[in-house]
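Support case: user asked for a sample of complex input and structure output to validate their parser. Sending the pair below.
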Amino acid sequence: QVQLVESGGGVVQPGRSLRLSCAASGFTFNIYGMHWVRQAPGKGLEWVAVIWYDGSNKYYADSVKGRFTISRDNSKNRLYLQMNSLRAEDTAVYYCARDSSNPDIWGQGTLVTVSS
Amino acid sequence: QSTLTQPRSVSGSPGQSVTISCTGTSSDVGGYNYVSWFQQHPGKAPKSMIYDVTKRPSGVPDRFSGSKSGNTASLTISGLQAEDEADYYCCSYAGSYTVFGGGTKVTVL
């Protein structure tokens, strides 16, 4: 079945870096764009970034532009989010989601906590 | 990159219908037929209920329906059931980015 599994979350100090990973299975990964979406504790969903199926185009929310980088490895069916210069306000559950005009299939999420 | 506007909460009794609005601009909701709706229960990942304004993914009951007029999209839940109590988020394609609504809590009285 179609499945997305995120990993790499944890507790990190402000200003440090963290890389999230998303393993895809059950569908042809290299023909779909992919999103990262986050949700701060008790808050709503916030779109973070999208990457095209072949990695040729990437777009970011203004709140993370210049600090986060989305990438993918189609040979490994994996999506990544490199997060640098982390801030307290980046604390959230991070979801990867498959794109089909909008996110459609979602992973279960991985929690990132930015705290000293 | 602003947020789509949704009511904070709506409620209804079992069997009734409720409608959630989602207001954007001509740059997002009004400009594309790519509006989705997601249901989220506490502690769970979002689940797609409607995509491309009116389409239902396989397995979603036909009690859920979507529509759009101008810059406002709507989700209607007919024949409200206890398991429909959840948070609902709209989402729109906006060209080089994607935008979500602030979320609506649906309470079944």
